[in-house]
Write a structure and sequence with these properties.
By secondary structure, the chain is α/β, with parallel strands linked by helices. Helices cover 57% and strands 12% of the residues. The protein contains 22 helices and 11 strands.
């Protein structure tokens, strides 16, 4: 079974986690607990856990110090941090320590269970891969492909022993000890309905394509299959080979794979690379950078070849106030504003590539839960399958780029409004009124007469129809949209009240202030101070 230790100075938290999580049924064995980092370090070295749930703020030795010490001894142990604080400093430390996730207190038990299940599955998969690798190493024969596989994987693990040098001679590969190297990873990010056997067959064919291109370009390289979805390759380069040439080689690899294996499309895999390093012993550094580039590729637009870039960007911190704005947009039926919020959120996150991907996915998961909850409240079934929340989590975990997350969230918003409209049997005329108002709210000439003229209906009939189906008047709806938009503008000090009033269709700032106070119970200035 997968072994877990809980580290938290709060006894109630430890007891709560022990009781609320179905450890045994998840295939997890809770083997110990500790109340501070010093006790946890001793316990971990004795029990060798696979996963540690660790609080950050603790006496004697905090969670960050403990995890740093632990990494020196147990490199494969998975760390899940718990904290009541969203400090950037802690998030940055969590990134450096390669934490699986960063969960804020109070702990959401369902969220934690989901993360534990995913992490436990990863532990088991890694064990299986290690077992396979051990078995493979015992069966190494005097065969160049097998030897190349052995060498390429061992070069990334600081295991540059005499044994590897002997295998290099056996494979007749000229990889000088002091040469310059670049490590690339080719990883499937979408495998569709491919079986494991199909993937293995494709990876074998890709290895041959890579080797043939190295020969064509007079390059020396060695490649191997790292796991069922990934190939690792090390290329010998010299000072005369610049980065433009290297990228051209990668592009050729990408192009030839698609040309020669018709079943594989370009968006199903990604090629990432670390920087060039000097010496066989430093290949692990290039490999780690390639792995980091894989993380960075999550935030890229649609790049399919990504080079590692060192960056000092701070991790993104999700503003929980966005959730209030988002649910507000949903409740007043402002689909455009809800989609715009998702788009802006995605754009902001993309500028913080040091953010843990799991943290980003969790932020989107929380937004999608709001859609799910509001849909239930309105009696709109936006999922057809059972076990809807788990389905939502599975969808999110299956995305490999921020753009995929954004597009999925936008589609869910559109689906929500479609279902609500169908549920309430909202007429096309009412939908068109809402759409017209959301598009023309900044027009100070906006009126019921404008709208009815656009829809070719009488004022009286349109007002009655809208009131019957929404429970509010058209003018009330116009005011709601304008006030919600002005709330967004009030968050920036660069806009005067006059400019805000003008931009939402009110020519008179005094009148705008009166309407705002009547609607919200406070003046725009008071609202600005509070936000």
């Amino acid at each position: 079974m997968v072994k877990v230790i809980i580290v938290d100075d709060e006894r109630n938290t430890r007891e709560g986690l022990k009781k609320c999580i179905p450890w045994k049924s998840m295939g997890i064995n809770l083997v110990g607990e500790a109340e501070d980092g010093i006790m946890a370090l001793d316990l971990s070295l004795r029990l060798q856990p696979d996963i540690i749930l660790c609080d950050i703020r603790m006496p004697k030795m905090n969670g960050i110090e403990f995890a740093t010490r632990l990494r020196e001894k147990l490199q494969d142990c998975k760390i899940i941090f718990l904290s009541g604080y969203s400090d950037k400093e802690y998030l940055i430390s969590a990134i450096h320590l390669k934490a699986v996730s960063f969960i804020e207190k109070p702990v959401n038990i369902k969220e934690l269970i989901s993360i534990l299940e995913t992490t436990a599955s990863t532990v088991i998969e890694e064990r299986q891969r290690k077992d396979v690798e051990i078995e493979r190493n015992y069966k190494i024969e005097k065969s160049v492909p097998i030897v190349a596989q052995y060498i390429s994987l061992n070069l990334i693990s600081n295991n540059n022993s005499v044994d590897i040098m002997e295998k290099l001679k056996l494979a007749e590969l000229n990889l000088p000890v002091n040469g310059q190297y670049i490590t690339l990873l080719l990883k499937f990010i979408k495998n569709g309905n491919m079986s494991s056997d199909q993937l293995q067959a494709y990876l074998d064919r890709i290895l041959k394509i890579i080797d043939s291109i190295y020969i064509e370009e007079s390059l020396t390289g060695i490649s191997g299959i790292k796991d069922a979805l990934c190939i690792v390759s090390h290329i010998l380069v010299n000072n005369s080979l610049d980065d433009i040439f290297i990228k051209t080689v990668f592009e050729k690899i990408s192009r030839n794979i698609c040309n020669e294996i018709q079943e594989i499309e370009r968006d199903t895999f990604i090629i990432v690379a670390g920087r060039r390093v000097k010496g066989l012993e430093n290949i692990p550094c290039s490999y780690r950078e390639a792995a980091a580039a894989l993380q960075q590729s999550f935030f890229s637009t649609d790049d399919t070849i990504v080079f590692f870039e060192e960056t000092n960007e701070e991790p993104y911190i999700f503003d929980t106030g966005l959730e209030k704005q988002f649910i507000g947009h949903l409740k007043i039926g402002n689909m455009g504003a809800a989609i715009d919020l998702i788009t802006r959120l995605s754009s902001d996150i993309s500028k913080h590539r040091n953010t843990i991907v799991g943290y980003v996915k969790n932020a989107f998961y929380n937004l999608l839960l709001l859609i799910y909850s509001y849909a239930e409240e309105r009696g709109a079934d936006i999922f057809e399958q059972k076990d809807k929340k788990n389905l939502l989590r599975q969808n999110i975990e299956g995305f490999y780029t921020l753009n995929e997350l954004r597009d999925f969230a936008v589609a869910m918003v559109e689906r929500l409004f479609q279902c609500i409209n169908e549920k309430n049997n909202t007429s096309k005329a009412v939908y068109e009124v809402m759409k017209y108002v959301q598009t023309h709210f900044s027009d100070n000439e906006l009126s019921i007469k404008n709208i009815s003229g656009y829809l070719h209906l009488t004022d009286t009939y349109l007002c009655m129809l809208f009131k019957n189906e929404t429970g509010k008047t058209i003018n009330d709806y116009i005011t709601e949209i304008r006030i919600e938009k002005s709330k967004e503008l009030l968050k920036s000090r660069e806009y005067t009240l006059y400019k805000i009033a003008s931009s939402i269709g009110y020519g008179n700032a005094k009148y705008y202030t009166t309407i705002f106070k009547k609607t919200t119970g406070m003046t725009p200035s008071e609202y600005r101070e509070r936000s």
